[in-house]
Structure formats: structure tokens, C-alpha cells
Amino acid sequence: MKLKLILGLLAISLFLISGCENVDISGISKNLTKEDINKIIVCESPYMRFESGCCLDQNNNKICDKDEGTSTNQPKEPSIGNNSSETINGGGNVGTIDYTSIFLSQKEFMQDLDNNIRSVITEGPGSRRTITLSLYGGELTVELDNTIIFAYKGDYKPTNVGETRTEGNLKILTLDPQTAGGSGYIISSTYNQMKLEINGGTISGQGNLIITNKGIDENKVSILITTD
Q: What torsion do the CA atoms of 27, 30, 36, 39 make, to the nearest 10 degrees?
């Protein structure tokens, strides 16, 4: 008990001397629990805990300002047009819908889905993988040419209208509202020499997505996608 008290006082002294810069407490932290260290290092606003010290976080987004560059609100990917966000007012609460973040989350999900489908193909019959279904609106379907498509209706434009952008195995297309019956975009990936099937035809919402290699069917690898 005395040893912990002495080590705790030593760590506090090091923290006060260093201000809000990171402190190397690796030599003493092995003798303290994680709870003890959290009690020793307390960061007052606008600073936040980071590694073994504190860092400046003026916009309170849980990211050190020094890691954000000169602009703390720069989106990960530029949006086309002025429809990247929308302010809503309901029930007396004002909030903002960030459509850029929604699109990036959907694209990340489709990349994860594509990677797991291709892994299940490589691993052979019986291979099975489960991923988290997080579409944030929209629907997942399969076309006759074994193209899996995520379609989202909305005004956000990840590309110019009618323009397709390729990112790895994914193709991203902003729909023309005059020909598609409304605004929106699709994210798709095509699989050759395969038989791709979604149980029920359409998937949406949240939950778990199960990808199973069913073996060879009509000289093609059969992949079944279901939810639980």
C-alpha cells in the first residue's frame, strides 16, 4: 500500500511538471492498475486524456487537435454540391444529419462485405463468415449478373450525376433523378463465375449478415447471404 502511494505521488509530480504533454510512466505503470493511472492523470477541459497524458481538444470531438491538421471539421471525402448536411428541428431539439458520414459508413460496409465474400470463395465449400449489418438506410439486392447492389435514396451526390467512380472492387454511381425516378446513389460490386443469392431477395436495417459458401452449383461457386 505504501509503495502504491509513493508511486502515485511520483506520477502526479511528473504530470504537473510536464503540463499537458505526454509523460513516460512506463517505468512505474507496471506497478499500478489501470484505475490507479486514470485517477492520477486528470485532464481539464479543453484538454482530453491521450496515452500517458493530455492533449488539446478545443472542439470536444474526442480527437487531439494536433492530429486533425489545420482544420478540425474537414470531411474524409469531399462531397459534390452543397448537400453534405442538413439541420433538423424536431421536438424542440436541433441537430444535423451528416450525409457525408452516412455515405462513408455505407461504403465501408460494402468494402467489408466484398472482402468477406471473396474470402469465403477462396476458403472453399462450407466456409462461413458473419459481419455486422450497418446500412443506415437503403437496401441490399443482387442482380442477375451476380452484382450485389446497395441502393440509397437521397439528395447526397458522391459523384457527379450519372458518373461512375471505381474504388477497388466497388463502383459508385449517383443516379439521375429524371431517369431513375428519384435522387440517390448505388454502391455495387460484381462477381464473375459465381452464383450469388440473398435470402429473401432484399436486405436492409441492422443486425448480423451471414455469408456462406454452399459449394458448386451449375459449375459456379454458390454464395448465400442471410441475416439472423
A: 30
Is there a single domain that holds both residue 157 and residue 220?
yes
* C-alpha–C-alpha distance, residues 147 and 48, integer Å: 45
Decide if 108 is inside a domain. yes
Nearest to 83 by CA among 204, 177, 181: 177
Give per-residue pLDDT as tens, 199-220: 888 998 888 999 999 999 888 9
In whole angstroms, what is the distance from residue 40 CA to residue 101 CA? 36
Q: Specify whether 53 is located in the same domain as 158.
A: no
Could you tell me if residue 149 is inside a domain?
yes
Sequence-distant (≥ 6) Cβ neighbours of residue 57 within 8 angstroms = 46, 47, 48, 63, 64, 65
Pick from 59, 74, 89: which residue ends a domain?
Answer: 74
Structural domain for 52, as ranges? 2-74
- How far is C-alpha 90 from the geometric centre of its chain's CA atoms? 27
* Percent above pLDDT 90 for the chain: 42
| CA 224/CA 127 separation, integer angstroms | 11
Nearest residue to 197 (alpha-carbon basis) of 214, 182, 181: 214
Amino acid, res. 54: C
